[in-house]
Amino acid sequence: MLKNLGVSRSGYRAFLQHKPSASQQRKNAIKEKIKDIYDDSRQNYGAPKITHKLRESGEVIAERTVGKYMKEMGIRAQWLKPWTTTTRDSDFSKELHNVLNEQFDPIRPNAIWCTDITYIWTRDGFVYLTSIMDLYARKIIAWTLSETMDVSCVIDTINKAKARRNTDLPLILHSDRGSQYVSKAYRAATEKYQLSYSYPGYPYDNACIESFHALIKREWLNRFSIMNYRQAYRLVFEYIETFYNTVRIHSHNNYMSPNEFEKLYQSVADEGIQKKAS
């Protein structure tokens, strides 16, 4: 067989006795760790987040090296589509003010919420996800999946957020200028909040929540051929409640999940109260 393949006996024995070098062994071990982290993130993390997780475990490695290894392994983060404008201006434009004005980093939870609606395709037709994000930790504090885009779905999401969060302090609630968000029912449900609206045809004021809706699609929903509302609901619940809020690290949160970042804020706040009391 060696003769037919044109391989010498000595070369074949050398191949059998060959052992990977120390550097090759380390590279293989790091690649295994990269694969584990990538799989644990549901195959969503790119080089920056994987590098952070590796360094947390004690590895000294550059982000560029991680990116190189990922390319060799044929794995990458999910691709994000460019922005598209979907909301048009309303007849109430003169009454709608942009209070947020791209100030995306509040100093406490329940200072700024933002909300939006996105569509999800199923074989039975579109369903619609309404979400509310607290900008402090980029946490989704309430969401509703519906089969229509009626304003009642937006109101239901607002009521869920009210029930789950302490909103006694001043709160800005930002949205685009969609018909649901300029309706009388919406204004009545949010009368205690300071309402803020994006500029016409300018998506960046609501970028955080729109980015989340793009994220849930590219990291999760787009992997499935969704049959109906029931399956869509299960997938949305699984992503938000068991991954995004609880596990997925976020660069804005110093590579902590939204839940961890809020818990850190609360622990620091509690320590401050104890010191004042003593």
Topology:
Elements: H1 2-5, H2 9-17, H3 22-40, H4 47-56, H5 63-73, E1 112-120, E2 127-134, E3 139-146, H6 151-164, E4 172-175, H7 184-189, E5 194-197, H8 207-219, H9 229-244, H10 258-277
Parallel strand pairs: 1-4, 4-5
Antiparallel strand pairs: 1-2, 2-3
Helix pairs in contact: 3-5, 4-5
Question: Would you give an account of this structure?
Answer:
With 278 residues, the chain is an alpha/beta fold. It has two domains: 72 residues, no CATH class; 175 residues, Nucleotidyltransferase, domain 5, CATH 3.30.420.10. 44% of the residues lie in helices and 12% in strands. The protein contains ten helices and five strands; from the N terminus they run H-H-H-H-H-E-E-E-H-E-H-E-H-H-H. A five-stranded mixed beta sheet has the order 3-2-1-4-5. Strand 2 and strand 3 form a beta hairpin. Helix 3 packs across helix 5 and helix 4 packs across helix 5. The longest helix is centred in the last third of the chain and has 20 residues.
Keywords:
278 residues; alpha/beta; Nucleotidyltransferase, domain 5; 2 domains; five-stranded mixed sheet; 10 helices; 12% strand
What is the β-strand count?
Answer: 5
Residues in helix, %? 40-55%
- Helix run count: 10
Number of domains: 2
Share of residues in strands:
5-15%
Please state the overall shape, judged from the principal axes of the Cα atoms: elongated
Structural class determined from secondary elements: alpha/beta
Query: Which residue ranges are poorly predicted, with pLDDT under 50 across at least 5 consecutive positions?
Result: none
Instruction: State the name of the first-level CATH class of the largest domain.
Output: Alpha Beta
Numbering strands along the chain, what is their spatial order in the largest sheet? 3-2-1-4-5
Topology as H/E string?
HHHHHEEEHEHEHHH
- CATH fold-level name of the largest domain: Nucleotidyltransferase, domain 5
Please, what is the CATH homologous superfamily of the largest domain? Ribonuclease H-like superfamily/Ribonuclease H
Q: What about the largest sheet?
A: 5 strands, mixed
Q: N- to C-terminal separation? A: 84 Å
CATH architecture classification name of the largest domain:
2-Layer Sandwich
Radius of gyration: 24 Å
Instruction: Return the average pLDDT rounded to an integer.
Output: 88
